[in-house]
Amino acid sequence: MSHHTSPKKFFPLPGCYGVMQMDPVAMVEDLGDPEALKEAKSMRVKKYIAYLYSPIELPWPNRPWYGYYVCPVAPSLRSEDVEKAIAPEMCIPIAPNTNHPTGRPPLVPRPPFPYSNCYHWVDTLTRVRIRAGVEFDDSRAVFLPDEAQIVMQEMFDRDMDRACEVLVERQNAARSLAALEHLETSEATSYVNSSEDRTHSDSTSHPWSDSSVRGSSLQSTRPSSIDSFETVAAFDPLSSHPDDDAFFSPLVDFCFDLTDHVSQEVIPDPSGFWEERDQILT
Q1: Which residues are CB-neighbours of 282 under 8 A, at least 6 positions away?
Q2: Is 68 helix (H, G, I), strand (E, B) or coil?
Q3: DSSP per-residue string spanning 77-131
């Protein structure tokens, strides 16, 4: 991706790193809700490092905001998420950082990334609305070359495949346990019934003959989808109208001047951004 055209644009180019900060007041001031506005004014939002993954729709001129998918950048390994089967090693260091539990090579941005402790985490794709009406100067923007973007996608595809495998294994184990409990119940019931009235039957049905157990309780199938992972929604690239769902996305200010706004010592965890978002939306 070339970034040597005019440095000032009416929309930010994807593939670059920047700083984003939510505007809670602007998100709720048109709702006519005094309590929501009061809470929004009391929030102390932070500035986060984010990678612009892709636009949600084409950034037409004279729009109040532009919808993007972003990947917040983290200053540490990912915390384990048992529910989603995500492990700490499911991340990629950003050079000059080279620390990783399994030795994964880092992604190498251009020009050099100004922080030495950062990672891309798997499963962080987040919808935001970037406020328009300003010039986005990308003359100092740090971006990922095309080949690095491909490597990142391939690594995260493998991570998500592994997470899905773990979730399916977990589902199959739960089904097997349920089938075993059903079997034990069937055996106990059969024994009691046969002991109470042996004169009415010369034999008892074997619990494994229950077709409902063989056909459903013991049947393991891979789920068609895993709701834990967010997927990029389809959009009409020629539409000049905002995506309706995007109105529920955080409204952020965005710029490319990384070190002017965030120092390495205070890079916040991406979970803080999602907590801010959820606080406003709820």
Answers
A1: none
A2: strand
A3: PPPPBTTTTB-TTSEEEBTT----TT-PPPB--BS--S-SS-EEESS--EEEEEE
Residue 105 corresponds to which amino acid?
P
Dist. CA 48–CA 70, nearest whole Å? 11
What is d(CA 171, CA 76) in angstroms, rounded to the nearest whole number?
A: 30
Q: Assess whether the previous peptide bond of 75 is cis (omega < 30° from 0).
A: no
The pair of structure tokens assigned to 59 is 């950034």
Q: Dump pLDDT digits (tens) for 166-207.
A: 999 888 877 777 767 666 665 555 544 555 554 444 433 332
- What distances in angstroms separate CA 208 from CA 48, 88, 178, 179, 196, one per listed residue? 57, 42, 14, 10, 22
Residue 66's nearest CA partner among 162, 146, 133, 130 is: 130
Note the pLDDT tens digit of each residue in 124-167: 999 999 999 888 988 889 999 999 999 999 999 999 999 999 99
